[in-house]
Amino acid sequence: MADNSTDKGPWTKMLESFIRYVALNPKEFLLYVFIILTPLMMVSGYLSLKLAKHIEKNEKDKKKKSARQSNIAKSRRRAKAD
């Protein structure tokens, strides 16, 4: 005997109640979403800016180091030539 009952699990019931809440209170739902996401987006923007500055600083340091190494190599070649 096959049991054809549509027994819903706890997640399905919770999802249905959530969808019902969103359908009945869309403005309140969007307000809560913005309240929760705004600080997260601000932190993300701050960390992205900080990362960009760090990458920029590393690139400048690499350029300085390579220029310094090439100058040292040139001066050694001149010293050997003399």
Automatic annotation (TrEMBL):
Location (main, coarse): membrane
InterPro entries the record matches: Smim15
Localization: Membrane
Disordered as annotated region, ranges: 58-82
Transmembrane segments: 29-49
Presence of the UniProt keyword Coiled coil in the record: yes
Membrane topology listed for this record: Single-pass membrane protein
Pfam families: UPF0542
UniProtKB keywords: Coiled coil, Membrane, Transmembrane, Transmembrane helix
Family (UniProt): Belongs to the SMIM15 family.
Full protein name: Small integral membrane protein 15
